[in-house]
Design a protein that fits this description.
CATH class: Alpha Beta
Strand order of the largest sheet: 3-2-1-4-5-6-11-15-14
Structural class: alpha/beta
Oligomer: single chain
CATH superfamily: NAD(P)-binding Rossmann-like Domain
CATH topology: Rossmann fold
Length: about 350
């Protein structure tokens, strides 16, 4: 491991919030002006959703609507210190696949900006629960986007993932299809669809980093799926700052963005630095094999895409080299899938998209 890689990992660890107080970052929330906006955040109790919500609490906004299906995490968010003295915030338990609930929400609050962070994200779980992935990640996104058009939402910011690039698994495919559907809608819509595609959020809920740390501190064997596996990582606060910057600054046309995340990091290097941060010396490391749907290396763009710099050093535009026409009839095939459809058949239908 070279010095640059070690420094990159150390900086991520220092900002992860996983370590003692003296290593945690100060909350340095940027102040954006959303004074005329009613903002809806889906998946508000999740890692990205809650961080966005807390950063927005330091901003000026007309109203903030925070929804999630997870009751206890949403209750924890309600009691977060960032919301102690704020009155113009609504918290609601809503399933984004339930049209009547969403219809009522849109009619009641008339959101003008949507941050859509709600999604199933764990690759192995989505391989064994593909129907749920399609319902939430694809059709939940479609329902929100369609309602955004009906209710004339100004901006719809979609949180995607680098797993949508050349996807091989159910989760990545579900995000890729959602990206393409939103790009399709943007061609004939007054709503701006802004897609943000980035790598693993360091220290997020259920992340490998937190799992590794737990095993190291409890003197358990650390299991890595492959000695060469690597991933892109981004600090939570940085990711959310950039998402808010895009929502604030980009007003002309729908775009797909990715972020400057530095170099891809080998997981073996990450674990090596994590052991040092945990003040341990003797840690057993074993290698298994790639899990279903998992790639050895992630990518930021496909062969049909190029990266273009923007006025912000950490924000890059992703442009397709060739025109792409979304096969709208494909959604009809997906809509015929039920809970009784075999996993094999579901995955075959998903992979037929590529």
């Amino acid at each position: 491991m070279n010095t640059a890689t070690a420094n990159q990992i150390d900086q991520l660890l220092q900002h992860s919030g996983l370590f003692p107080k003296d290593k945690q970052p100060f909350k340095n929330y940027l102040n954006f002006d959303f004074s005329k906006e009613t903002i809806l955040i889906t998946g508000a109790a999740g890692s990205i959703g809650s961080s966005l919500s807390k950063q927005l609490s330091a901003c000026i906004f007309k109203k903030l609507i925070l929804i999630d299906i997870a009751e206890s995490p949403l209750y924890d968010l309600i009691n977060a210190p960032e919301f102690e003295n704020i009155n113009n915030v609504e918290f609601s338990i809503i399933n984004i696949t339930q049209e009547d609930s969403l219809q009522h929400l849109f009619k009641t609050f008339k959101p003008t900006i949507i941050f859509h962070t709600a999604a199933y994200k764990h690759v192995p779980l989505m391989e064994t629960n593909p129907y749920e992935s399609i319902k939430t990640n694809i059709f939940g996104t479609k329902l929100l986007a369609d309602l955004a058009l009906i209710y004339k939402v100004k901006k719809f910011i979609f949180i995607s993932t680098d797993k949508a690039v050349n996807p091989i698994g159910v989760m990545g495919l579900s995000k890729r299809i959602s990206e393409d559907y939103l790009s399709f809608l943007s061609k004939s819509s007054s709503t701006l669809f802004l897609i943000t595609r980035f790598g693993n959020v360091f220290g997020s809920n259920g992340s490998a980093v937190a799992l590794f740390k737990h095993r190291i501190e409890n003197e358990k064997t650390v299991i890595i799926t492959n000695k060469d596996i690597s991933r892109y990582f981004i600090d939570m606060q940085k990711a959310c700052n950039l998402i808010l910057k895009i929502a604030s600054d980009y007003n002309k046309q729908s775009e797909l963005f990715t972020f400057n995340m530095g170099n891809s990091i080998k997981i073996t290097d990450l674990v090596e630095r994590l052991i040092l941060f945990c003040n341990e010396t003797q840690v057993d490391i074993k290698f298994s094999k790639l899990r279903p749907g998992e790639k050895l290396h992630e990518e930021l763009v496909s062969e049909n895409e190029i990266l273009i710099p923007t006025i912000h050093n950490d924000i890059l535009l992703v442009k397709k080299k060739n025109n792409f026409n979304f096969p709208i009839s494909y959604l009809e095939s997906l809509s015929k899938i039920t809970a009784f459809t075999s996993h094999k058949d579901i995955k075959a239908i998903l992979k037929s998209y590529l």
